[in-house]
Amino acid sequence: MENHSRDKGKATQTDNEDKDDLQSVLTLQRHLLMEAKTLDSDLDFAFQLQMQEAFSASLSVHHPSSSLDVTLSPPSDMGFDYVTLMLQDIERFEMERKDREESEEEMRRFRNDLNRSIYDQNFARYIMNVPEQEWNNYGDNYERPYDGNVVESQNEGFRVYVKGLVSEERIREMKVTVGGVGVAICDFWNNLVLELRKKLDGAEFMTGEMAGVEAVIHGLNAALSLDLKRVTLFVDDFLVYQFITGRQQPGQSKLGTKVNEVSLLQKRFTYFQPSFAARNDMSFVFKLARDAIVSQITWPVETSNGKGLKETCMICFEDTDATQMFTVDGCFHRYCFSCMKQHVEVKLLNAMVASCPHEGCNTEVTIDSCGKFLDPKLVEIMSNRKKEASIAVSEKVYCAFPRCSALMSKSEVLQYTRTVMLVAEQSGARKCVKCHRFFCIYCKVPWHFDMTCIDYKRLNPHPAREDAMLNTLATKKRWRECIKCKHVIELGGGCYHITCRCGFEFCYTCGAEWRNKKPTCSCPIWDEPNIIHNRQRRQ
């Protein structure tokens, strides 16, 4: 261990000496070039003076009476200024060197943090394997502080998540194609070690698969920079996965070159295993790639509140403050609040669940996120719509109290009631999850504590006023109640074979059940005037 530390110190000292030597060479070269440029300028100035004197002497010999004061304008420098170009190259080289040193220093810091993490985890596993009796006797004396030395991580497996995206966006009046890469490296316990987001150069000439392969290259290079030897690579693009595993060969020459580069990088690991992951497991790295794209389509502006960012909405093409742009969870497409508000409201009016407006994207717009631009009442409507769609009709239960009428599923309300009443399933009592009051799931009325359902119905033979009005209207309009879910149905036209939304099939005339698409009664299946009426209404 001491020899390793000594070697590490010598290597660091040698690196510092090399940097100092390089800095001295650059400084000396810059000094020599500046002297050469100054000398060249002096020689040029002396040459111009000699030419001016010779020109004046020539005029005085041939035109002695002339009193013209001739001043020779300095000739325009039509030659190439190699000295200035070399000085610019040195400045650029020095800037790149500084950027590279800062990047290397950052990666060294990451490696040190990673070594510390691996060291702590190894020590924690060691402690977990200490016998209980030994720990009780000597546990207070266990200590092994991290000494800063490199921890061998060959046996540690790391997870590399990558995602590459190419997207057509709009910057003011111009359509652009931009790309981004997201990389996340996690340890075996899925703790984040490093995350990267970079833009893709030349994205306008890339396909989605090529962007995915580029992301793999960035991810593997990042893993190698951390001296990782055992990695599992996760991608969510099946075609990219096929390319990496060699199960499918790319057709394009450029893509083939990139796939070959991935193959060369694979060989630098002692263990490399590609894995195909579900989209939901890659959402965090997907967001990194999308953030890299967004950073390329925003531009800084001066506002009344100071500096801000502008972005063009892909629906209305208006330049909008970046803080007023809505990001759809899951796909991370962005649109202004105004356009999203109209989009979601139209979907609600048509009793539909709102999805991302991007063409070909079916990502559902989450209810919680809509609170940024929707009225709270509409958010509640969306929540209820989603809940209604997720519960089967035969499982739906509504609170019996009219001022609540909360929607629940039978299993949900039963489980909630069991927390306060052990015999809930036998009694029929249910506790509303919203208003927390008890009601009878069979009688659909507030809970009758001191009597059974039979006694309650005998003492209350007449339905409630609201139910009586509905029954009267149903009788008048000849509506039919489904005997399975109690849903009231009106026949607008057509045949008398009814399929309720709960799936129960019955005869609209008498209510008898249909089995295997056949009636169990002798009622007529259709009536000609009713069919004609229905056809005329459609026309």
Largest pleated sheet: 5 strands, mixed
Poorly predicted runs:
1-5, 72-80, 532-539
Give the end-to-end Cα distance, rounded to a whole number of Å.
Answer: 91 Å
Mean pLDDT score: 79
CATH architecture of the domain at 158-290: 2-Layer Sandwich
Shape: elongated
The CATH H-level superfamily of the domain at 158-290 is: Ribonuclease H-like superfamily/Ribonuclease H
**If you compute it from the alpha carbons, what radius of gyration comes out, rounded to the nearest whole angstrom?**
39 Å
Strand content: 15-25%
Report the structural category: alpha+beta
Helical content (DSSP H or I, runs of 4+): 40-55%
What's the CATH topology label of the domain at 158-290? Nucleotidyltransferase, domain 5
Strands of the biggest beta sheet: in what spatial order?
3-2-1-4-5
* Total DSSP E strands: 21
SS element count, helices = 14
CATH level-1 class of the domain at 158-290: Alpha Beta
What topology does this entry show?
Elements: H1 2-62, H2 82-128, H3 132-138, E1 158-171, E2 174-186, E3 192-200, H4 208-225, E4 230-235, H5 238-245, H6 253-266, E5 271-276, H7 283-297, E6 299-303, E7 306-312, E8 319-321, E9 325-327, E10 334-336, H8 337-349, H9 376-390, E11 396-398, E12 407-409, H10 410-418, H11 424-427, E13 429-431, E14 438-440, E15 445-446, H12 453-459, H13 465-477, E16 480-481, E17 488-489, E18 497-499, E19 505-507, E20 514-515, E21 518-519, H14 528-538
Parallel strand pairs: 1-4, 4-5
Antiparallel strand pairs: 1-2, 2-3, 6-7, 7-8, 9-10, 11-12, 13-14, 14-15, 16-17, 18-19, 20-21
